[in-house]
């Protein structure tokens, strides 16, 4: 079983992962997965609060996976050792918590998952570099190159895509639907994701970042998640 949901922002929006809010977890084991589509936020200070909630997640019956969003402490995240997990590179954060790195391909429950975290903060003028925002929120040149190499290697075919932000036209659609057409301008990453969407063969694409739950009318395979938790496998 593979579930996917949106941002949890540390403990701010983690309530959706309780057994009461997500009762299907009672049927899951550590061989099953719950994927968070960015803004995990529990590697923020590595303080007592972070550690408590990560221990709480480790006690869940499933294995927790996440791509990075823009609201992560990348300096701390990058300190974790890089290891291999189900075909791709990860940072292991806890006993059963893994950060799925950018431009990687994973096999989960017999399905392929391409991951590309990162996003541009729209509130960056109110944040402090190295304290509440990091330059690594957007992919590096090397990460874009690696993503293309990964997709070339698997012949541009996957089952699912997990990102934090959306391809440019879908991001524009979301912003218009939310009534904020100028809040989310296009950038290198959203343009890159659009190029991937145009070429890649995939069944479903799941992302967070925009704090609501929507299915794109431009491409119904692309789903924005925040509170909803979907079973996709």
Automatic annotation (TrEMBL):
One GO molecular-function entry: hydrolase activity
Gene3D superfamilies to which the protein is assigned, alphabetical: 3.60.21.10
Record's signal peptide: none
Domain of life (superkingdom): Bacteria
Domain Calcineurin-like phosphoesterase: residue ranges: 2-212
Name by which UniProt lists this protein: Ser/Thr phosphatase family protein
Organism: Ruminococcus albus 8
